[in-house]
Every structure is written in structure tokens, then in C-alpha cells.
Records
---
Amino acid sequence: MASSQTLPLHTKMLMPRAVINRAFTLVYSCAILALLYHHFIGLLHSASMVSIFLLLADSILAFMWATAQAFRMYPTYRQVFIEHLEHYAKEEDYPGLDVLICTADPYKEPPMGVVNTALSVMAYDYPTEKLSVYVSYDGGSKLTLFAFMEAARFAADWLPYCRKNNVVERCPEAHFGSPDPTRFTETEQIKMMYESMRERVENVVKSGSISHDYITDEEENEALCRWADGFTPHNHPPVVQVLLEYGKDKDVSGHGVPNLVYVSREKSRDSPHHFKAGALNALLRVSATMTNAPVILTLDSDMYSNDPQTPLRVLCYLLDPSMDPKLSYVQFPQVFHGINKDDIYGAAMRHWFEVLMSGMDGLAGPIIAGSGGFFRRRVFYGCPSEAPEMNQDLGVSHSIKSRDVLAMAHNVAGCKYENQTEWGRNMGFRHGSLVEDLFTSCLLHSEGWKSVNCNPRRPAFLGKSPINLHDCLNQAMRWSVGLLEVAFSRYSPITFGVRSIGLLSGLCYASVTFWAIWAIPITIYAFLPQLALLNSASIFPKTSNPWFWVYVALFLGAYGQEYLEYVLSCGSTQRWWNYQRAWMMRVLSSFSFGLVEYLLKSIGLSSIGFNVTSKVVEEEQRKRYQKGIFEFGVASPIFLPITMAAIINLVAFLSGIAQVFFRQGSIEGLLLQILLAGFGMVNCWPIYEAMVLRADEGKMPLKVTLVSIVIAWALYLASSLAF
């Protein structure tokens, strides 16, 4: 152990760009203050609705820019040294690990995807006796239970195959579907077994019923018989089914297998279920009654393990004596596979995970990202000074199939168990927002807990991202409503957060939770200057006016900073362009709808629920996506704002050019408006293409185009009265 003093488990350093970021922030802040001063002076001399709207837009842009700079003050890079672990702990002394996987709909989240995720973590390079996997199916479907009965049988062959051949890709689908797979003696045999399992599971999902030919023993039949009349996704008793138990079940090589437990918490129409936070809390309690591991990993159903050594990377933080004892969780980035070359929807969110999360790592720590977080179990039981240490041996001395343990597990999975308790308030994942991950991390940080960002070169997890625009925009709308719930709650980061976590961390949280208010300035700049241009009205300074160059400098400065960060940290110029275009689309549509939805919900006129993002993709849709073609196809109102903006920016740009060249007008006073309309027009090219040039099923529905034209025309008529 003496040598461990010179062999660190991890290192941490401040990135060199921190100094440049701080200098840029100082200079850019002066330009923003100057512009706001210019607006105020203008209002004093001549107040108009146009000047008021521009002041509102620039004030919100200034606020959002200022909060985002908090990410850039202390960008941090960490590196771990797995090879040094042996100097700090023996394998038998590793803490237990409970993996909690959530799924909710067998048709939007196919059971085979969840099975692949579970099998990938069951095959971790970690002591088998320390590993348990709990799968929560929130709809209570027996189809998912059947899929995991099949997975339990397949695991007996898959786990020793991975162990014997040191397989790196331990998700069966990824391993067998690799374009250049490594082949071993048993590969074809194991692949045939996997394909046979997949065929049975998919047949069951397709038919909606389980053939008696697929049931192999009385225990399985007894488990499936619970789905009787009256058992519905929204009204059913708790189901806790132990599928594999270490010490009793063996793989084909005679080794023990990890515990595998299926959980479906009780549902009742009379009790609130609190969406994903409620499901995770039920898994926390059920796992505590059975194995009670001191470390917990939470995963989404499609986020499979891509690196079998990920738990060892986590131990490099948890077992490091130099680490802050208030460390609560280690967060890995969400990385998505199957995204097309240029990421046309900006769905990879690389800028967030590569740049902004590393910025929070230098402060109190990154937020919980919904999946891929390793937690100390005790963080869910109170602040650092009060949370009890969990006894990692508790629950190991008895069978998890014993009658007492199962009775207790069913009890804590009941829908009324949380009543009159601190669960969801001061314990577990916090209720009160659709974005339970951010809300929980904000409250944990405010209690004094810390977190770290672990971003290895090989992604720890790979998941699926929506590959059609409608799903992307609806997902962002749902997030925006949840974020606003936090932003305007008693735990608002701008007030409570700044006081309890610190100024910079509070601003980081504010930057995220207030995302939806981006809709206000972007909507103003997407329509107001263009409508003024259509009416030959100049609303920006002339090119001869020094304030013209302040506008130009602010635009280029903000875009230039983000471009450099994106390209240096993540990828190509083309990807950056697509990212910023997709961001504009989300702001105009998702954030606008989310803002309205939140306001309606606040006054009791609307109630938004949690809708699972579909992981099912049609083949033709996939082909169009891989070619970089935008997918519209659905006559949804969420497309109206971006279609209207596309129409108005195109007409305004052509009108501005006509005014300059054909009416002998002066370009000096209209240049900024023409440039802004041109910028919008270039960003809207996929929309024009979908409206006019395409004939496939993914084109813009004619109904959306016609409604957008009518509303755009109405806006123009209304603006002609104002200018």
C-alpha cells in the first residue's frame, strides 16, 4: 500500500482555454453593456414597440449569454489509471454494484433493446458476486418479462463467451452486427442462439401473446399467470420476479451469474406515479431490500455498455483517498450510435457533453444526464453530514428469493409506500419536474454533494437518438417544460441555486433551466426585422453608424466562440453548421411550444405527461436519414413556426434585394436586415426542399405549408399597419 502514495488513481487539470475564455468574456461583456446602454438611450428619446421588442430580445440574449459563460471559467480535464487499482483494493473488496434500468413501452422501446442493455452490463469486468441488474418495466407488460426470461437463459452462454474471449463489445446486437466483427470458435453457435432468442421475443411482441411452447417450466408459467383480467398498464399490483440469483444459478462453464430481477411497481389511477423519478425510486427501494449495493448505476433502456471496464474507471474516483468525501456520483457522457455522418439534427449533443459538462466539472460538478451515472447509494438518503453509510454486506447473507425478502420488495414497490415519507422530496430522485435528473442533481449539489465528469476516449455507453425531426422537436419540447418547472420553482437556480451552490454553478443551472426563454429573442429576430424589411422600414443602425459594427461584432463573437469550441472539441465545420441550424429549429418550435405549454399548465389550463421517445424506426425513414435528408412527414403544429420563419425570411430577403437593385433604394439602412433574412434563409434550406422539391413520404405535409402561408400572410398584413 505504500507504493499507492505515488501511483494516483486519477488526475485533474484546468484546460488551457480557461484564460482565453475569461478574457473574451470581459471584452464581450463590455460590448453587450454598450448595446443595452444604446437601447435605453434610444428609448428615452423615442419609444416605440419595435425598440421595446429589440430591447427585450437583446436583454434576454445578454442574460442567457452571461449564464452560459459560467461553463467556460473552469473547464476541467480528468484522466483515470485503472492499472493502479490493485494498489488500493483487492477485487474481493470492491463495493457491490446495483444496475437500475428503466423502460416503459414494449412497442416504443422494443424489449430486445432492453435485453441487449442488460446483457452488456451483466458481462462487466467486475466480480460477479458484486453485480446485480434490476429492470423496471413501468407499464407492467408480460412481454418484457418474457423477454428477460429468454435473456436469463441466453446469459448462461453469453457471459462465459465474453469472459473466455475477452470480448470488448458485450452488447450482443453490437457484437454480432459489427461491420468487422472478431470471430472466435463459438461465435457462430452463440450468434444462432441469439438470433433464435430474438425471433421468439419479436414474435411474442408482434402477436401480443406468449405461446405455451415458449414456456419452459412451471415457475415461468406461474410468473406469467399474474397477468389476469383487470391487469392494465395503469392499474396493476407490484411484480418482482427474480430471474437469476448468484450462488444458485450457473452459466455453462459452472461460474455463478449476476442477479437479474424484473420489477414492475404497482400502478393505480388513484395515486400519482411521478414518471421516471417514481420508477427509479421504486428500483432504489427494491434493490435495497435485496442486495443493497453501495454503488448504483442508472441506465436508460437503450443505453448499452460499450466498455466492460467502466465500473473500474468509477472506482478510480470512489476509492481515491484524495477525492472529496462528498463525491456523490460519477457521470459519463451520453454518446449515440447510428447518427448520420453530419448529424443533421444536432442530436449527438456533443457540444453539451464535450464542452459544457467539462465546465461544470471544475465547479460543483456536472448534472445527472438521465443515464450513465454511478451513484453512492447513501446520497439518496440525505446531505453529506447526515447520510448514513450503507453496509455493503447487508442483503448478501440471505437468498433474494426468500419469502421475507420478496414480501418486503413487493411492499416497497407499492404505489402508496411513498405516502407520508420523504421519498421524492428529501430522499431518492426528486419529484416535481419532468426533468428529474437535472432537478435531483441541483438539489444534491445544494445539499453539499459533489460530482465528477468521466469522459474516456472509448464511450462508456452507446444509445439511440431520434432520427426524425418530429421526435427530436417533441423531445425538446418535453424537456423545456420540465426545465421551466425547475427554473420557476422555489429551487430556482438563479435564486436558491446561487445561494446554496455558488454563483458560477448556479448560473450553469440557470443557463440550462431557462433554455425555453431563448424562444423569445430568437422569435423576435426571426420575424420582426424581416417584416420591417417587407415594409421598407429600417430598424437597425446604418453601416456608417458605429453601432452597426457593435451588432456585427456581437453576432460574430458569439458564433465564433461556439464554432471554435465545437470544432476543437468535437468535429467538423459541417457538423457545427447543422448543430446551430437544429438549435434554431428547436428554439423556434420546441421551446416556443414548451413555453406556452408551461404557461398554460401554470394557470391550470393544460397538463403535459411523459411521452416515451420511440426507438422504432422504419427502414425507408432510416435510409433518408443516412443520406442527410430531413424527415418531416407528420402534419404537426410543431412545424408551423419554422415553416413560417422560412417563408417570411425568403420573401423578406428577395424583397430587400429588389428594394436595393430595382427601386434604387439605399442598402445602408437595410443591410443588417437583409443579412439577417439571408442567414435565416440559408438555415431554412431543408424546409424549402421539403416544401417544394421532394415527393417522398418525409416531405413537408401540404397542410402545414398552406397553414404557414396563411399565418405568414396575416403577419405581414398586421405588420403593414405597424410600420
Note: The chain has 23 helices and 13 strands.
---
Amino acid sequence: MNSKKTSDAKYFQRGKIQELKAELKSEKKDPKFTRKKNVLKKIVANMTMGNDMSPLFPDVLVCMDIPVLEIKKMVYLYLIHYARNKPEMILMSLNPFNRDVNSNNPLIRAMAIRTMGYMPVDKIIGCLGKPLHNCLQDRDPYVRKTAALCVPKLFMEDPILVEREGYLNQLKDLLNDNNSTVVASAIAGLIEIADRSDKFDLSINFNLANKLLIAMNDCTEWGQTYILEAMMFHVPQTNQDAELLAERIVPRLQHANAAVVLTSVKVIIYLMNYINNEEVINNLYKKLGPPMVTLLHGGYEIQYVALRNILLIIQRRPDFLNTELKVFFCKYNDPIYVKLAKLEIIIRLTNIRNVSQVLSELEEYSSEVDVGFVRKSVRSIGRCAIKIPEATDECIDVLIRLIHTKVDYVVQEAVVVIRDIFRKYPNRYESIIGILCENLDSLDEPEAKASMIWIIGQYSDRIQNADELLDNFLESFKEETTEVQLSLLTAIVKLFIKRPAVGQALVPKVLKWATEDVDNPDLRDRAYIYWRLLSSDPVAAKAIVLSERPAITTEVEDMDWNLLDDLLLNISSLASIYHKPPNNFINGIKSRKLIQSPALNPNIHMQQQKTFNFDEDENQNIYNNVNNPYSMNDVEPMNGNQIDLLDFENAEQNNESPQIDTSDVSSKNDDQFKVRENMTPTNFGSGSFKINNDLLGLDMNITEPNPNMNNMNNNNQFNNQNFMNSNMNNMNNMNMNNMNMNNMN
């Protein structure tokens, strides 16, 4: 074999058209047509390399009359290659094709009808009618098999012709053929047409299904795959029919061919939808396990296909393969795509009994060379903590050990994971925040920075130097990504709400930058909202900014059940690898659905309802006793002794130091929250002043007099530099001893 490959390599050299034409026209004696073979090999090789060999078409066409099978194969390959791009040249081959389809040699007849089916040329398709009818009824089974596969190809080009000529009925007749190979080819053609035709639906009754399963015993492995695929078009009418067919297919799970095994798995899972006996279903799932595990000992490509299909089955049946966890542990020489697929399955199979073993394995993976795999492993530790509350302490210990390794990307992923754990289990693991703060210099990725900033802001009332930490992040605010900027803005507002004295120096700075120096509309809008809330209604600001977040669960990673049902009907296909419906990446193909039947089990395909159960007593509207912050009719004008973040300049011009109201805002009666009529969005503050950067872009001057603020300058403009300077002076002049924290908390 190696010597043959070496000898064939000499043909892959760029040849000149004139030289090749001369060799084809050579009249030297060549009784065995050896020279013709060599020239055609050179032509096919050049054609494969992308060289244009179309000028040789008349000379190559002459070779169709040579009664040598190898030469005819190369000529047919040449014709197929240029059929779509050079249709006018293909018309010259009609007469030779008509001779070949009537040849006494069945191999030549089969090759001719196959080649004609591959050529999408109107004239060829028009001439295919009678020869295809004859080949579908040919005495030789190989010709009938080839003709059966030619029908779906013709259907792709001209479905009306196929229906008009009655080729579908001839394919159905071939299902009763005495040759199993012909039966398998006929069913393959019908399936291909049924998947693409809106007018033709393939339906196989129970008797025909039994006949096909009997014929499968004599088929090749690919013929078995076609017949097993046909079982997807049988709708059992009773539970007993489904159980019987499933039991007859179970032996195919031991087949050496992976395609046969996976197709058998697909059909059995499909038939389970029509079985109501839970014990039978459990036994069938147990029989599916060992064959799927066996596939994991094959080549890496087969392993990956098996893993992607196992992932689908596990989402339908979580206890599937729950005793085979070690099979999915990664080997050092596994490709990265296999490792990542195994990692996903490991997390889904993790439970309270094996979590310690899984965490030990994940910690070992975190020292691998591949950075992407290490990141995924660290995140998987966090998923274990969220999935299994009893193992959270152990997960935290593993994460702390990983942080102590001082590997940058490991530390950053650990910070992201710990943020999620804090959200899932608030007020339980705050003692490790100090360890996280020791590694701030290691954070250079946006997600890690945003996670650390979130932790500091969320627990700013417990971190003594939270303002210093946030101020360090604020130094590079303008250069950070939007994700970090949004997180930093929210964290500083949280700090200000929880510890007003500490956060007052940072809030004006971040609000100024976010509204004036940043182009991102999301960041700017959020800053304006915070600015408005803090200036007008601190209670509403606290209710919104410190509101309860939805609980983090692993359910968000589960696939939609409608999509899962579709993919389980497409196991062993590309859809099960992409985890997308076939019609997303294949044009014109129909999606498969479960068909109603008296035997259909309603509990199998019913969607699982995912709802959040809130305690009505503890989770009432967060705005109870708080006026609507989004309605301008609920905004109270600022009193003279309250801080207005928009009015620092006015306070400075009047040599006044704004003071925080020491009264408890939450204790105010509803009748105290009154608003002047016709209040516009820009005059919610005290006095009459103008804001250049108007929140709504209206640049409105409000001149309505306010008796409580007569000493304010009218039409005072907002000055950026004075805003910062006066803000710092006002903060230093405030009497912190008289401050009442309840004003914001």
C-alpha cells in the first residue's frame, strides 16, 4: 500500500494542457490502455489541485467509449466536477450515458445512473426519466440499490419531476425487495425525502417495522443505521408495541460500529416516550449505559461525539451513568475539547456522595498547562458549591488553596467564583475577604476586577478601608472597560449609602466622570439615575441599590426542555454535537416532533416548571413605604439642611456647609412628601438654578421662586471644577459627630 501511495504521488504535478491533450490523442499502440489511465490520473490530480482542466473535455469524453471500469470511473469523476460550472459541455455526454445505462455490465449501468444523478443539469435530469425507471426495476440488486439512492438526489433538484414520474411509489415497492441492501437503500432515500418535503410524510406501521428489523440482520453496518433511522418514523399505538421494538433493538447496542450504537440509543430513547411502565424505562436506561461507556474508549473524535450525546441524555435523566463518574475523569493526553466535554458531565454527575472526590480531581486539573482548561476547572468548583450547599465549606477551602498558589489566572478565576458563592450564601464566608484583598495586584482582567469591586461594595460596611480600595480602582476609571466601570459606580454608591461619611468623597468624583467623560450610554444613564435618586430620595436609593438579588442556581445552565426534546430525537447527528436544531444549520430540513398516540406518555416530554418561590411575608414589594423613585410626582424638594449633590456650587457661593439631615427619613409621614404642582424633571432641587448637562437634555431654566432659598443665585450654572473643589471643602467642614447614619441606612 505504501509503495502504491508513493507511485501515485508523481501524478500530483502541474501539467500543461497541451502535453496532456497530446497524450490523450496519442495513436501509439496501447492494448491495455495503460497510457490512457496514466494521463487521466494526471488530469484528475490536477483537477484536485484546483487547476482548470476543462479545455480537455472533448478529449476526455472520447475515453467514455473505452470498456475499462477504472477509466470510466475517472471520466465520470471529471464530468461530475465540471457539470455545475460547465453545463453546456455536459450536453456532449448524453449519447455516451445512454449507451452506458443500457450496458450489459451491471457495474457500468450503476455507475452511469449514479453519475447522471450527481449532475444538476436540466438536460441530464430530463433524460434521466426512463433510465432511472429501468434501473429501479433492474434484475441486478446493485443497480437497484444505486438507483434508489439516486432518487433523493433527483428530488433535491426537481421534486415535481420525482412526484410526477412516480419514483416515490417505486421506492416504497423496494421496501419489499428480497435483498436487504436494496431495502436499506430504499428506506434511506425515503427518509431523505421525508426530511425535506412538506408534502411527503413517511409513516411506517408495526408490521413493516418488524420486516425492516428482520432485514437488518443481513445488512451492512450502514444499512443497519438506515433501517434503525426508519424506526423514528414508526408511531407505536400501544405500550406493548414500543416495548417489543425496543427489546429487539437492544442487541444492536453491542455493535462494533459507533454509528449503529448511537442510532440504536436514539431509537430506544424515542420509543421510551411511548412506554408508561417506569420499571421498563429504568431497565432500558441501564442497558444504554455500558455501550455509551464503551464508546469512551474509542478514538478522540468518537469520544467527543459520545460525550456530547451523553450530556443530552443526562439532562433528561440525571441519574444516567451516576455510578460511572470515574470514566469521565480527564487523562493527561486527552485533547482539550474532550477534557472540556468531560468536565461538563462531571459537574452534572456530582452529588453529596462523590463531591469530595470531584473537588480533589478539579484541584488537580487547576495545575494543568492549558489555561482555558484551568479556568474552566476553577469555575467548576464554584458550580459544585452552588449546586451542593453541604459541600460549600470544602469548596471554599479548595479555592483558598488555589489563591495561595499566586498564579494570576487561577487567582482571578477564584475571585469570580467566590463572588457567585457570596451571592448564593450571603453573610457566611466574609472572613475570606481579607485573603482576596491581599491579591488585588493580581487582578488585571475585567471580569475579575468587576467581581472584586462587587465584593468590596457589597460588604463595604464590614471592610474598614473599603473607600481606599475603591479609590485605588477609581484611579484608572476612564481606562477601564464598561463592565468594570459599571461595577465601580454601583459599589461606590453602595458605600455611600451604607457609610455616608466615608463615601461622600468618592460619589461626586465617580458621578462626574460617568456623566461627562464617558461615552457609554448605559454607564451614563445609570450614573444619572443614581445621581437623581441620591439627590431626591435616599430611601428609594437604598431600596433599589441594596435590593435583594435573585438567587443563583445551576438551573440556568440547563437546556430548554423543548430544545432538549428536539435534540434527543436527533442523537447521532450533527444537531446532537452542536446542541442546536438541525434547521438552524441545514436549509430546508424539517424538525422532528413527537407524534400524538394513545401510547404517548404525557409525563416524559412535559416541561419542568421552573418557578421562583418567594416568601410573601418576607419578600413584599421593596417599595413599600417608599414613594416611587421613577415618578417625578413623588419627589420632595430638598430642605435647607439636606445635601443636594447637584447644588454644591450654590452652597459654596453662599459660604454654607451643607449638613445631613439628622432626622430619620424613614420616620417621615406621608403628608410630608409633597411636591409642587407642575414640577419638571430639572427643578426637583432647591432654589432656581440651571444645569448645563441637563439630565433630560432639555437645558431648562427654572425661575420659580423658593422662599426657603432666597439667598441662592438665580440661573447659576454648573461648573465642573468648582463642583469638585467645593465638594471637598464641604466634606471637610461637615460636623461628622452630629451625623445620623439612619438618614441613609
Note: The two ends are 83 Å apart (CA to CA).
---
Amino acid sequence: MQDIETCGSIKQQLAKLFRESLRVTLPGELDVHPLIAPCHCQDPKKKGDGQDSKRGDYQCNNALGLWSKFKGKGTRFEGPAPIAEAIKDNLPESEIIEKCSISPDKPRAFVNVFLSRQWIAKSIQRMLIDGIEIWAPKLPVKRAVVDFSSPNIAKEMHVGHLRSTIIGDTLARMLEYSNVEVLRRNHVGDWGTQFGMLIEYLFEKFPNGEVYDQAIGDLEAFYKASKLRFDSDPAFKEKAQRAVVSLQAGEEKYRNAWAKICEISRTGYEKLYQRLGVHLEEKGESFYNPYIPGVLEMLSKHGLIKESEGARVIFIEGKKVPLIVVKKDGGYNYDSTDLAALWYRLKEEKAEWIIYVTDVGQREHFEMFFAAAKRAGWLPAEDNKYPRASHVSFGLVLGEDGKRFRTRSTETIKLVDLLDEAKSKCKAALIERGKDKDWTQEELDKTAEAVGYGAVKYADLKNNRTTNYTFSFDQMLNDKGNTAVYLLYAHARICSIIRKSGKDIEGLIKSGTLDLAHDDERVLGLHLLQFPEVVEESCTNLLPNMLCEYLYNLSEDFTRFYTNCKVVGSEEESSRLLLCEATAVVMRKCFHLLGITPVYKL
């Protein structure tokens, strides 16, 4: 048997076997790709019962499509069922497969695959010995850019930044687990006309040039005050516009003021990122500014840029409004910056996949500038080829009134306030359960943070990112149902079972043997083994909710196993403790990929 790390997920390993069978069955058809899919049994009582179920664990679904292709062309086959039989009969020997059958669902003629209990058990035990990294999926890229969070300088991060930050972080973590080198990019808004008014207001407040973090105070208030002056005072507005020119010309006084504003903002962001456990490397709009002229010159040589009403634009087929790459006043904007950034990431950073995580309102912008990149030859015309650029769009965060989530005074909710409240509510719940009497203050604080921040993240990530979702502390902090609190409790419970057994789990991993004789053990074992393909599909589809669904279903399968299979004190204690440990290991890796800190006691 080949090692898991060289074979990949169950689907990949089965695809390899069926590819060989298809080559033998249809020697003249070299481009037939095996269509392998897991079977989804609707009856939980029969779920995973390989010996009695008619559907098996996986299916090969090629027969019907091949029959449609060959029908009436002199083939030796007389329908999809004979093709399926031939595919089944030509499968090479493998310890992975216990048996195969042909689905009775005519005319589909699926080849049903029943996996070997012994192989499932051996694969799980191998993971326990060598570590869950050997289950990392294989992706067709080596380097990716994930562009996420991206707040604007001089503005506080609010609840709208939450989705981009945690969705982007989870996508980056899943890609990193899959052995992709990820360049985590924070494309902050640190350039543009707004800096003229900020710098000029700064000079008014501090004419001697000495600026301290605490002197500016609330950056958001500073921004609003400067905007008020800009809108109400024509003389100030004129000075602010001249300040932009001085900044872009590189005058030292203005560059220093700009750098100070950015530094103060950055300090605030970093505190939030540390709380969320998010790592980012900043390459803001200003970084790409020097590259814009050269990139626009390249696009001009390709004939993409046209003059229109005093501006320079790129017309995109099917779009009413063009991309404006040089404004009427000769200045650059988001379109020009984003094109320069894409060029840099493809040509200088050699990224094969560039992923942008922003709200759904920017969808058309990305469609247009991706189309321009394809016309320039930077990206292939086909979306399924690499290098590739993808826009990961997401919906709104709503309040319980169904409107955009805001404070009662209609202000956007600051992210720092939201995290504070999540931790505070969790701590209060733990104290109510008497944990302040059993735990140290540090344990109480760390657990409240882990559960509170985890609850906020999971409540977002479990939804399909393209939809809006309603923010509710009551729902996300519920210890029942599909919530982080429930899942963290489930993990802590597994850890408690192992502790109470008194067994040395590390010694057991080395000397024990896993046996999946009971059907509920097999169900749980199979679910564990499907972890790599779920991560792979979550990455491929850029949908973190697929991993959340897997994690919740895993906890449900564990509950069914633990209800029906006595662990501590049973004849099968050693084997079942290994299954408990394997479940805990996979749950912890899921938590890690979702950016959630696991807890070991609750």
C-alpha cells in the first residue's frame, strides 16, 4: 500500500484505481476522467453500514456519460450497466476496497465502492502516529496571494471588516495546510485624495510638527473633523488639494505627516489582528503607486487604453461604464492601483492564484479588471486554468431587525467593541456556571476569549459567504446546535473522556490497535478519513462553510458513537480511546483552520 501522503484523499486514491480500470476498459479513450463522489445515505441509522447498504461509501459515475458518448457508434457495450460492470471488473486489486457493486438505480449504473474497515482503521492509526499533516490535500498551485481585511487608514475597523478578515484568514490557513505558500496581503487604503485633508488638518493641530499618538486621540474622530473642515471651508479645501500634490511629489514634510498617520492607524489594526489571531503583511495602495505608469504603458501597447471625455479608460465588453485608469486631472484611482497590484503579484511575486476577499458590492469592479487582465494576456481566457484570479465575495452582516448591523445611534459598530462584548458575555456565562471558583483568573479570561472570539468567527464562517447573515450574540453563544460553543464543548468532553480513562494516550497510539467492528465506529472512522477531501473542496470552491458543516457533522457522529459504544471500562477500551483521540485531533485541526482556539475543559 502506498503512503497516504503520496496518495492524497480517499477520492484521489479511488480516482487513481478507476483511472487504471477506465484505461483497460476503454483503451482508445485516454482522456476519460474518473467521476468519483461520496454516497450520501439519507437514513442515519444505515449511514456507513457498508455490509447492508446498497449504495456503498463512494460511487464511480462514468458509465452513463460514456454510454451517451458511444451509443450508436458501434460499441461492444449495450447500455450503461455493461459499461459499469466492465469498469468494476477491471479495477486493480487494492486493500482500500472491500467490494464493489452496480447501483440498482437504472439507468445510471453507478459503480458502488465499499471501503475496507481494516484499511480505514489502519489509515487513521497511521495519522495518529505520523501526525495530521500527512492528510494535507494536494492542490495544483504552489504559491497564492490572499488579499483580505484591507481597512482604510485613519478609520477604525468596524463589523464590515470582520467578514473579510476572518474569511480571508481561514482561506489562507486552509491553503497553508495544503502546502501552498500563501502571501497574506493587507491592501490597506493608505493613498489618495483623503490624505490631503488629513495632513493639512494635522498641520493646523500641530504647527510645530510634533505629533504624538495620544494627541490625535480617536482617529475616527480626527478623520471626521478633517472631513467637516474640507466640506465647509473652501480655503482649507484648496490647501488640502495642494497637500495631495505635495505628498505625491514626495516632499519630506508631507511624506512624514502621511507616515505618522499610517503608523498610528497600523498600531490600532495590529492590536485587533492579535486578538483575532490573524497574521497579515501590509502592502497598501501606496506600495503599488510607483508601478502604475509602467503597467499603463504596457496596457497601452496592447491597445487596451483609449481616450474618453478627457480621461484614459479601458472599455470592457458587456459593461456600460469603462475602467478609468487615469482621471481627467491626470490622477490615478482604484482601477489603476488594482491593475498594478495584479501585475506585480503575477509577474514579480510569481503567484499562481490571486484571491481577493471583499464584499459582494465590488463584484463588477473585479469582473471588469479581471477581463482587462485577460485581454492583456496576464491571465488565461479560461477561468479553470492557472494563473487564476478569484473574487471571494460576501454578503452583509445584519442586525436582528434585518437591517445593516449598526448601533442604536446608527453608527457602524466598531470591531473592538464587538469583541469586547463577546468576551464579556462568555465570561459572565462561565461565572454563572461557577467556574470562577474552580479556575484561576487567567484560565477564566483565556477561556472567555477563546469561546467568545470563536463564537463570533464560527457564526460568520458557517454561513455560505455569499449570503447575508444576522448577527445575534444569543444565537452564537448558545451551547446547543451548530455553534462554536457546542463544538468547543464537544472537544472538551472528548478530552475529558481520555483523561478519565487514566490511560497514557501517547503510549496507546504506539502500542494499541484500532478496530472499527461496530457500525457507529465505522461511520465515525470514515468521516474522519474524509477530512482531506473536505479541506480540498473548501479551498477549490473558496467556501469555508463546507469545513464548518464537516466539523458539526463530525461532532454529531461522535455523539452517536459515544452513546452506542461504551468506551471507558469496555473490552474495546483501548481501540475506542484511539478513536476518541483521532476525533479530537481532527477537531483541533478544524478549529485551527477556522482560526478558533480549542479549549480542553469547560
Note: The first strand starts at residue 36 and ends at 38.
